[in-house]
Amino acid sequence: QVQLVESGGGLVQAGGSLRLSCTASGRNISSYGMGWFRQAPGKEREFVAGISWSGRIPYYQDSAKGRFTISRDNAKNTVYLQMNSLKPEDTAVYSCAAEGIPYGLGSASNMDYWGKGTLVTVSS
After folding, report:
1. Residues contacting residue 33 through CB under 8 Å, at least 6 positions apart
2. CB 123 within 8 A of CB 15
3. How far is the C-alpha of 58 from the C-alpha of 37, rounded, in Å?
4. DSSP bridge partners of 118
5. 20 to 30 Å CA-CA from 10: which of 96, 99, 116, 117?
6. Digit-coded pLDDT (tens) for 23-57
7. By the 8 A CB rule, do 115 and 95 touch?
């Protein structure tokens, strides 16, 4: 069965950086679009960043542009989210997700598999 496991979350000061990792097992992700989402307490889950199966097309929520970078290493079956200039409003549980159909763009509406998430807390 497909398993997605995130790591790299933690507590940081505003303006700091973190790199999140998502490693898949039970399935090779080399031919699937991937994405990162987050959910803050009392709020609905929202899209943060996506990347095409090839890694050639990354895209971001407006609030993440210029601060976050999504990338992938298919040989390691891993997707990353580099987060710089973190703000308190970035505090959330961050989850990675994979599309169920191969050769996709990693769009927010096409995710079928989800990790359990890793907590990111940004203090003022």
Report:
1. 50, 51, 52, 53, 98, 99, 103, 104, 105, 106, 107, 110
2. no
3. 14
4. 94
5. 99
6. 999 888 889 999 999 999 999 999 999 999 999 99
7. yes
